[in-house]
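Notebook entry, structure prediction.
Reason for the run: the old model in the group folder had no record of what sequence produced it. Starting over properly, with the input documented here first.
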Amino acid sequence: MSIKYYKLLDLLNRRNMTKEELRLKIGVSSATMSKISSQKYVSLEVIDKICEALSVQPGDILEYESDK
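New structure, fully documented this time:
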């Protein structure tokens, strides 16, 4: 399974928002934001916080890519 967060990073760029600003807004650790940047697993709780903070749907910030 491969979840990609490039949509989130693009959205932040279009909104002139840094990852640090988002991190502070949703109250997660730097390690969690690092996982997102590294395309690693984060919990649905984190996805939920991001969606709420940015008023978006999960499909607006992530995408599934098959490993095949």
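Summary: The chain has one domain: 2-65.
The old model has been moved to the deprecated folder.
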